[in-house]
Write a structure and sequence with these properties.
single chain, 524 residues, alpha/beta, D-Maltodextrin-Binding Protein, domain 2, Rossmann fold, 4 domains, six-stranded mixed β-sheet, five-stranded mixed β-sheet, 17 helices, 30% helix, 24% strand, transferase, HemC, Porphobilinogen deaminase, 4pyrrol_syn_uPrphyn_synt_sf
């Protein structure tokens, strides 16, 4: 190409990083380029929240106008800031690789309480301008106070440093691209399957004039079609919902083990409890329409759901179902009993890891008041065990989030093989994690409780039955049969195996926790 390309960009540090990345990429394929900084409505108006700004594209409109006028040849955007439809005459010629779309919660160290989920002190003040973030935060921490936060990434971090907030939320991608040191804060990383990001979060979009065919062809060297395909699901879902940046919608699509997985969170507004959905499929075709149909206001939900676990009034699962007027029948079909009253902490002297496979194991072990040596690490199975560990004042260094214990065992073995590991647990454990460890690993099983099945378990007439352990399955089906209209959700594969032995089909949630179980109910 014999002409110099003019790249239009906003003037923030992150926007300039992105524009320079594109400039360097163009020069690597022998295309000369220079930057032109353009101020947008979103840059000028900093005293209003996003949902009070008029129109759409308040970070992109001015760049698009200059592109149409011919004063620039390329506009570089954070893809999530773009409206779902290009102005006539403009197209997205290329999209970048996707940077990690996780969210970061930065917490002042004086305001950190590890006993709380997300580690923000009770009633803490959290800064964010995103209704999507606000709704998902309040769903798991309704005690938090959310306050508007505007400005570029360094400005937002500066406001936290000045103690105007106890914590703030940022996209990990921007922090990573700018190389910002966050060591002065406590940092909680929230992955995109746990805290669902904005459509196209972490991706840069390169926009050009539709008629500029030569430039389009040149930019295909920078394009990532696999990312574009996944973004089409996210962006078309946003389009079908008729939303913009103010809509409390999170959509994340990825390919995992030759399957497409889509995670969606949608609320009416920032104050409302969000509905969540997880879909796994072989093809992307028709996915946006399917997602929107699952969120339709006239959708028929099951009238009653049984779960084999006691559910507190404030639990995520209860709030998610009761919001949609679904009756919950919650009763555990087993009970646990402590098996030891004393514990010799000398056992911990040469221990490297303590691994808990259930929250019961955490609870009963800490009743023994163990004294841990310096440097001991903690592993847990699932977020329920992680939350119980937090309540006892400790972070998990490893969290097994898969519903397949074999996968968790493999992941844990990769970091813990050859060490000494204590496994507090039931008196007859399945030992799924232990079996995945190498022969060089020192394994100590410590029974701290036993499970007792209830007798004469009453049947349920619920539409959906959720089973949270193999023992609960065994207890229920001693005296009861599954009715033809009833559907089953098993919290993990070990629970699911009980149904496979019975020849009963079941649904598996993405994650073995209350959010995953609610997603599974919503997806049926």
């Amino acid at each position: 190409m014999d002409r110099k390309i003019i790249i239009g960009t906003r003037g923030s540090e992150l926007a300039l990083w992105q524009a320079n990345f594109v400039k360097d990429s163009l020069e690597a394929i022998h295309i000369s380029a220079e930057l032109k900084i353009i101020k947008t409505q979103g840059d000028r108006i900093l005293n209003l929240s996003f949902d009070k700004l008029e129109g759409k594209g308040f970070f992109t409109k001015e760049l698009e106008e200059e592109l149409l006028a011919g004063t620039i040849d390329i506009a570089v955007h954070s893809h999530k800031d773009l409206p779902t439809e290009n102005p006539p005459g403009l197209i997205i010629a290329a999209v970048s690789e996707r940077e990690d779309p996780a969210e970061l919660l930065l917490v002042l160290k004086d305001c950190t309480d590890v006993r709380q989920k997300l580690s923000v002190k009770f009633g803490g003040l959290v800064g964010t301008s995103s209704n999507r973030r606000k709704a998902q935060l309040l769903a798991v921490r309704p005690d938090l106070e959310i306050k508007e936060l505007r400005g570029n990434v360094p400005t937002r971090i500066g406001k936290l440093r000045d103690e105007k907030y106890d914590a703030i939320m940022l996209a990990k991608a921007g922090v990573k691209r700018l190389g910002i040191d966050l060591s002065e804060f406590h940092v909680e990383e929230l992955g995109p399957t746990e805290f669902i990001p904005a459509p196209a979060q972490g991706v840069m979009a390169i926009q050009i004039r539709e008629r500029d065919h030569i430039l389009y062809e040149a930019l295909q060297d920078l394009n990532h079609p696999d990312v574009a395909a996944e973004l089409s699901v996210e962006r078309n879902t946003l389009k079908l919902f008729g939303g913009g940046c103010h809509l409390p919608l999170g959509v994340y699509c990825r390919k995992e083990n030759d399957k497409f997985q889509v995670f969606t969170s949608k609320a009416e507004d920032g104050e409302s409890f969000p509905d969540r959905l997880f879909i796994e499929t072989d093809t992307l075709e028709g996915l946006p329409e399917l997602i929107v149909a699952k969120f339709a206001k006239d959708r028929q939900f099951p009238s009653k759901v049984f779960i084999s676990r006691d559910i507190s009034a404030g639990s995520y699962f209860r709030k998610a179902l009761e919001k949609n007027k679904i009756e919950i029948e919650a009763r555990s079909l087993i009970r646990t009993v402590r098996t030891i009253n004393k514990f010799d902490s000398y056992i911990l002297k040469n221990i490297d890891w303590v691994f808990f496979s259930s929250k019961n194991a955490v609870e009963y072990f800490f009743q023994l008041e163990p004294q841990f040596p310096k440097g001991v690490k903690f592993g847990v199975m699932g977020t329920g065990s992680e939350d119980m560990l937090r309540k006892n004042g400790h972070f998990a260094d490893f969290v097994g989030e898969s519903t397949d214990t074999a996968d968790v065992a493999s992941d844990f073995a990769a970091i813990a093989n050859g060490t000494a590991i204590l496994f507090p647990g039931a008196d007859s454990p399945m030992r799924s994690i232990q079996q995945g460890l190498s022969a060089e690993t020192k394994i100590i099983d410590l029974p701290v409780y036993e499970t007792v099945q209830e007798e004469n378990v009453e049947p349920t007439g619920a539409d959906i039955l959720v089973f949270t352990s193999p023992s609960n399955v065994e207890a229920y089906f001693v005296d009861n049969l599954l009715q033809p209209q009833q559907k089953v959700i098993a919290i993990g594969k070990s629970t699911g195996k009980k149904f496979e032995e019975m020849g009963v089909s079941y649904k598996l949630p993405f994650s073995p926790d209350e959010i995953g179980l609610a997603e599974a109910v919503f997806g049926i």
